[in-house]
């Protein structure tokens, strides 16, 4: 399963980078395959472990902000591993053809 999510602290002003960094730190320390871009962090693993990482990432931001917004999208595809890499490689292969 791959989950793409973003955690946004609310009520802390416009500078939220340090708050978001705490969520990303949780993901990086999880040991699960992940990628972070300008809009989302994607993490790959089994349902329980991925959702636990999302829960802890939200909690890390929640500890510093009075309100938190979570946007989450999941690709639930049993038996597929390394989807973070293989999905991008497939698109790149089609682009180079």
UniProtKB/TrEMBL annotation:
InterPro entries (UniProt xref): MTH1187/YkoF-like, Thiamine_BP, UPF0045_domain
Domain of life per record: Bacteria
Pfam families, per database record: Thiamine_BP
Ranges where the Thiamine-binding protein domain occurs: 3-92
NCBIfam families for this protein: MTH1187 family thiamine-binding protein
Family: Belongs to the UPF0045 family.
Protein name: MTH1187 family thiamine-binding protein
The organism of origin for this protein: Streptomyces lavendulocolor
